[in-house]
Specification:
Layout: E1 2-3, H1 14-17, E2 20-23, H2 25-35, E3 41-44, H3 50-58, E4 62-65, H4 68-72, H5 88-95, E5 103-109, H6 117-129, E6 131-142, E7 147-154, E8 159-169, H7 176-182, E9 188-192, E10 198-204
Parallel strand pairs: 3-4, 3-5, 5-6
Antiparallel strand pairs: 1-4, 2-8, 6-10, 7-8, 9-10
Length: 205
Amino acid sequence: MRLFGSNESRGASAKANARIPRPSSGWSQLQKSLREQEGLRILDIGPTSSTNINFLTAMGHSVYMADLVEDVADPKWARTDADAPFPTEDFVRENLDFGERLFDTVLFWDTADYFPTELRTAVVRRIHEVMQPGGQLLAFFHVKPESGLQRYHLRDDGQVDTQFAAPVDVRDTLTNRQIEQLFREFASYKFFLAKDNLREVLVTR
């Protein structure tokens, strides 16, 4: 976990570095809640964005970073046997240990789409454990397989900027029913329609 850290990838080409704005109904609604409160503890799970850190700290919140897709790619988790299960318990213990911290808000982005099923379930269960009751989580899910992990940058106009972060393929695409099952331990969830290849869900702990 990194507090106020920044490891933004700088590609060689302008295209790789380009930021593309996309409307986000989920972020628009979550932002209203964040502006009504101060001193929240926010967990941003995705490729680190200094834009997000600056944006959220300027609102009076604390920001913690955890790039789990990058962590999964660490060679230490590689399996010599392709049929061997991913070491889920060890991964969660090492990468989702926040001490006594509980979070009010989690920016989960599209992280779940890059995990094997057993790890996806375990990570969401652990996030549920470290969230405050009534806390909110924003997640994106791909409608169809895509190549290229994106970094998401927050904006104050109800949009987020997307920027290529790494050449990683989406592992799975989930149906609405599968997403509901993934967050079944949470109190409620709300889906938002999008015109691009992402569906959004705002989940309440």
